[in-house]
Amino acid sequence: MGDVLAARSQMAVSLGFHILFAVVGIAMPVLMIIAEARWRRTGDAMYLELARRWAKGTAILFAVGAVSGTVLSFELGLLWPGFMRFAGAIIGMPFSLEGFAFFAEAIFLGVYLYGWQRISPRAHIAAGALVAVSGAASALFVVIANAWMNSPVGFRLQNGAPVDVDPIAAMLTPAAFPEVLHMLLAAYAATGFAVAGIHGFMLLRDRRNAFHRRALVVALIVGVPAAIVQPITGDISARYVARWQPPKLAAMEGQFRTQSGAPLRIGGIPDVSAQRTRWAIEIPNGLSLLAFHDPHALVRGLDAVPRRDWPPVPIVHVAFQIMVALGTYLALLGVWVVIETLRRRDLAANRWLMRAVAAATPMGLLCIEAGWTVTEVGRQPWVIYGVMRTADSVTPMPGLIVPFLVISALYCFLGVVVVWLLYDLVIRSPITREGEGAMAPVAA
Fold this sequence. Notes:
This protein is mainly α. It has a domain at 206-395. The chain is built from 14 helices and ten strands. The strands form five sheets. Strands 1-2 form a two-stranded antiparallel sheet. The longest helix is centred in the first third of the chain and has 41 residues, at 2-42. The protein starts with a helix and ends in a 17-residue tail after the last helix.
């Protein structure tokens, strides 16, 4: 049992680490091409400095993401042989397409980094745009593979093995659209507000700094629309889960009993032994309304499935509450930014807004980690929902605690290196106040 737990823990650590670099890699190229486009349109050298710095940041994150992604690919084969033996022929296509998108992203990132003076301005911006498109496509295909695990289609079971495999049908699984939409918007919202938060913090120290003011605006252009729209995609995802994975919805909401007009719970801690969620604020009929758009709809509780098929309810419920709380904060903050912008007010001069933006720096990334916890842990005890249990797909190989500790230490080291490199990029940012002349770099 210890080795099985080590295998699952190693995969969880690898996924939790990799996803942070994946989501930032999706959105950072968008920031850099917006900055370059503004520089070419206005001639403001500050935007050129932003584009170059964000391109370097994108390269750093891409390199570390490539390392952690390679580790994940080995772990899939070594730690989950039962899963790969069953699912390889079904989800091989999205993984292959993801590899193609990854290589395209690497090629165009190289063109962008080394093509400033070597190709035309239009070609350079096009290369940056293709980096952004390739990054999004890479995420799209990986999420499609995960979506298939939540709603497996495109095959027929015969003697416990998949036959009549249709990889196109598998890619068009019902979970694909809500998961892809939710994930991509989460990436843009999380990255946009992470970058905006860093520069918002710097503006609290010097609100006239032109570099941080422009960086804040570009980051909010990416983060705000995604954060405001995200609750709509969350509603789409919740209705999918209610239809296809009722036990996951019940765990998310701490709904132990099948009930018409089920309440929406805010907060609370599920007590599995007593089969009730304690200390939650309950909104009557709220869950039925959100999940089925009918306040009197029947919501299946955990009592509708055997106890052995229950996910870890407290973990799923708490992670879901964290995701909703942080996502709501970002959406409301986005609305605040829009209101201030429509009133033509100086965002950097509003210290309360800048404090709120600075506080949001880690929230989007934490929201993504919580959301993936809901997605993966909420599917348990199934690795392929309703088809294969996690315990049947993991390797029986002993001694996994050692590689788990080594890989975890490697991730910690890489994380420290990346944080230092990105910190150095921000600390060495130019000191130029609005209305002044040439830029002056900050001494380290």
